[in-house]
Amino acid sequence: MRPLGLLLPFLLLGAAPPVANEKTIHVPLWVAAGGDSGLTAANVSAKLEGRPATVRSLLGPDDPLLLLIVTDMVGDVSAIAPAKQALIGAVRQLPAAAHAGLLRAQDGLSVVLDPTTDREALAAAIEAMTISGNAGMLNTVETIARIADGILRKSAVRVAVLYVTDSDIRNYREDYTNPVINYSDPHDMSRRFPEGLIREKISKLDGVLARLEAPLFVVHLDYRSETLNEAYQVGLKQLAATTGGASAFCRSNAEIPGAIEEMFRTILTHYRLDLQLPARYPKIVKVELSSDGRNLNYRTEFRLDGR
Fold first, then answer.
1. What range defines the domain where residue 113 resides?
2. Is residue 105 a contact partner of residue 71, using CB atoms and an 8 Å limit?
């Protein structure tokens, strides 16, 4: 594995030509299942804050894709084995225009394999992934999201981040369990809101991701129904939704292959719509899209106060 700092220059070296105007937002969108897929820049109408917006470009399923796969698997081998096999099957079926890289989140983000079109090299790297360390998604998602965002803004490619995780909130090095501070005080807030630290962490990450534009996708291999992990899993779902991505939570090992297959299908079929921002815009911009009666699913809100 290699230090993360080497990844971005490698990606940009082989990237498509840069997008010229920085006053642009990049909207991930999908045509609903069963709908007409003949989407073009010419037949998309867009509004920002209720006013017509200029469509600069549209990239679709046949255009280049950069997929950053991040594994965060430290638990039950019985769940990880089918996840690995499903990932291997999915990467072998990637279209020619897709580059995929493999990273590891446990105990800090590191590069396992640079983005490549060599499907067998990627399959071998997934097969060789070790199961060790502590859960890492909450500690690494901001970093990889910023890298993906930088590539998206500088290159004419679709970009997506996919986490495959079995993380338990109690498996992090940090203690997110909000332990009771004063056992003799029945009004101790940690008694009433044991998930408070989790929600605080998710809220901070959500504020960061709301300012970034590459969609985040999450497949969680082991849904847990107790209070702290439910709060954590709701948080992961929120982070994906904020970026316009998607999430899936598996309640049994039998659901894992289908969840990974469906998430790859979702990633591969997404469009990237580039919209011109007006000269002045608010901190939070609302997006409205339509296309000749097609049912479009898309990210509807962007925070732009970081620009």
1. 4-22+63-269
2. yes
